[in-house]
From TrEMBL:
Belongs to the peptidase A1 family. InterPro entries: Aspartic_peptidase_A1, Pepsin-like_dom, PEPTIDASE_A1, Peptidase_aspartic_dom_sf. Residues 5-381 form the Peptidase A1 domain. Keywords: Disulfide bond, Hydrolase, Protease. This is Acid protease. Pfam families: Asp (PF00026). It comes from Dichomitus squalens. Disulfide bonds join 34-39. GO terms for biological process: proteolysis. SUPFAM superfamilies: Acid proteases. Gene3D superfamilies: Acid Proteases (2.40.70.10). The keyword Hydrolase applies. One of its GO terms (molecular function) is aspartic-type endopeptidase activity. Residues 423-466 have a biased composition (Low complexity).
Length: 502
């Protein structure tokens, strides 16, 4: 199962769907000049580049690991970019004219990277083009506000309340949940912060493949990505043995994980993954070359201990249907092996969509230029209900009546977004209402998160860019019946999924 979670953005005059990716830092969109097979298959609106201001450089972006790598390349330039009510002028991006990224062929038109500036190849390319002979890290760090990724620039321009965003993802099969949610600049309304377990983001010294400190902050150590420490891993309540696979010449005593919405799977050390597969799959236990099939009616819970607390993957997110029309035999193909840690990439695990369907995650950037002043961190809240095993069993029983599990796929809407009182997502499981310019979200089952909320302070900020954001939003959103613009803008975080039947 490959899943892609999309949100609509406007780049220049083109509004299209892009994939949310916390594992990378760059914004790119498929341009009308892209003629690769993947681009030709896309049903998304390409970027026409009419308002694109080229900087004269090109960028080559790489995604995935050694077994699943893809690329995207094209010219780097700037344009006006709008995400809900937030508009950023002169935003650096890549207009991709060559890619084999599967997200494009499945209805998306690019990637919105939500990572740190240190991993932004577009920012580096833009700085090289503008400054010709930039002074290393000094220029790179000092120019984040001008050439950095879009959320980093929103933070530096004080256009959002807090330097954070939060994400939950929709369950798209087995037992479909309510639509996903992203908030930028604030936590969801009414959310109890005491429920969050916070852990620090891993910082990379230069000797570990990180940035060389700038001369104006010689003692600073910067984050590369949303990578957090992992205490232990459990399967069905039993602690798993640690991996014996280590990167050559590296001290990997600290186990860490990348939190990555752009990864449709959970990836981990091959020896630990083999242990998991052998435990849940009799076929794999007998032959490690066999598919890890297992009875559909046997729930299993994979859990990660983070900050001293267990964060499980819901049993409904652990397995998949193996063959169409067969709800008796499933496959544990949502957990796979990955590369060993390496310099600049010390993480052993990559917790992708199955983990994010089961947990709300808050990504806090902190201070982007001086991390020691306000360190970056990640917060976790489990959304797995106590009766998850029972819900899984019920979903299996329901599927066995007609032979298939339910599934869902939508592309983020790129026409005008309707905002009215009592507005609801395409799923009736959740509703969000707007009253007197404020939003309220009724309590809901943790397995059915509310529709997407992108929270912006555009209505109260005083900067020129903030004003532009508000005006841009007014062009694409309908006014509620009360006639006033809400302080919170609602858009849909939609799911594209491609089910591979073996």
């Amino acid at each position: 199962m490959s899943s892609f979670y999309t949100v609509a953005v406007t780049v220049g005059d083109s509004t299209t769907a892009v994939n949310l990716d916390t594992g990378s830092s760059d914004l790119w969109v498929m341009s009308s000049a892209c003629k690769t097979t993947q681009c030709q298959r896309s049903t998304a609106q390409p970027y026409d580049q009419k308002t694109f201001k080229s900087l004269g450089n090109t960028v080559q972006l790489q995604y995935g690991d050694s077994t699943s790598g893809t690329h995207a390349s094209g010219p780097v330039g700037t344009d006006t970019v709008t995400l809900a009510a937030l508009t950023m002028q002169n935003q650096p991006l890549a207009a991709i004219d060559d890619t084999d990224n599967s997200a494009v062929s499945n209805g998306g038109a690019g990637i919105l990277g939500l990572g740190f500036p240190a991993q932004s190849f577009v920012q580096a390319s833009a700085i090289n083009a503008v400054f010709h002979n930039p002074s290393g890290t000094d220029t790179f760090i000092s120019q984040v506000a001008t050439y950095g990724p879009i959320v980093s620039r929103l933070i530096e321009a004080d256009m959002i309340d807090d330097p954070l965003f939060s994400i939950t993802l929709q369950r798209d099969t087995i037992d479909v949940s309510g639509q996903g949610q992203i908030t930028i600049g604030q936590l969801p309304d009414g959310f109890d912060e005491s429920n969050i377990t916070w852990v620090p983001v891993r910082l990379y010294a230069a000797s570990e493949g990180g940035l060389t400190p700038p001369t104006f902050a010689p003692n600073e150590v910067y984050p590369l990505r949303w990578e957090v420490p992992i205490d232990a891993v459990f399967l069905d309540g039993q602690k798993l043995a640690s991996s014996t696979q280590a990167g050559a010449g590296l001290n990997t005593s600290e186990v860490s994980a990348l939190i990555d919405t752009g990864n449709s799977l959970i990836r981990g050390p091959q020896d630990v993954v083999n242990n998991i597969m052998s435990t849940v799959s009799p076929a794999f236990a007998a032959n490690s070359n066999a598919q890890p099939t297992l009875p559909c009616d046997q729930p299993h819970t994979l859990a990660f201990q983070i900050g001293g607390k267990l964060f499980p993957v819901d049993p409904r997110d652990f397995t998949s249907q193996n063959k169409k029309g067969d709800a008796t035999n499933c496959i544990a193909n949502n957990v796979v092996g990955t590369d060993a840690p390496s310099t600049g990439a010390l993480f052993s695990w990559s917790l992708g969509d199955p983990f994010l369907k089961s947990n709300m995650v808050i990504f806090y950037y902190g201070n982007l230029t001086h991390p020691s002043v306000d360190p970056p961190r990640v917060g976790f809240v489990s959304l797995v209900p106590d009766n998850a095993d029972q819900l899984f069993t019920q979903a299996v029983n329901d599927a066995q009546k007609d032979g298939s599990f339910e599934s869902k796929a939508d592309v983020a809407p790129t026409a005008s977004t309707l905002i009215t009182e009592g507005a609801s997502s395409t799923s009736s499981a959740s509703q969000t209402s707007i009253a007197n310019g404020a939003a309220s979200t009724p309590a809901s089952n943790p397995s059915s998160p509310p529709i997407t909320t992108i929270t912006s302070t555009a209505s109260t900020a005083t900067s020129t860019r903030s004003s532009d954001s508000k005006n841009s939003a007014a062009a694409s959103l309908r006014v509620p019946s009360g006639g006033a613009w809400p302080s919170v803008v609602f858009v849909t975080l939609s799911l594209l999924s491609s089910l591979c039947i073996l």
